[in-house]
Amino acid sequence: MRTSTSARVQKHRAALRESGLRPVQIWVPDTRRAGFAEECRRQSQLLQADTHEHETVDWLEAVADRDGWQ
């Protein structure tokens, strides 16, 4: 027997599918994990001298739409 909550969730998901959407599961790094910040720092430092990285950052700065951002 379904609970009212699970029935509502099923109805909502069915409506999303009906509108042409599908569920996708995305796994991302756990920012709370010990060593996460250190690993980010290590990877960032590896990119400091990378020419392609500088080109990419310059391009992102040029095309970024920041109107209305503080």
Protein architecture, described:
The chain has one domain (4-63). By secondary structure, the protein is an all-alpha fold. The chain is 57% helix and 0% strand. It has helices at 4-18, 36-47, 51-63.
Number of strands: 0
Span between termini: 50 Å
Helix-strand category: mainly alpha
The percentage helix is: 55-70%
- Stretches where pLDDT falls below 50 for ≥5 residues? none
Given the structure, what is the number of helices? 3
- Tell me which oligomeric state these chains represent: single chain
Question: Beta-strand level of the residues, as a percent range?
Answer: under 5%
Keyphrases for this structure?
70 residues; mainly alpha; 57% helix; elongated
Short précis:
The protein has three helices and no strands.
Please describe the topology of this protein.
Elements: H1 4-18, H2 36-47, H3 51-63
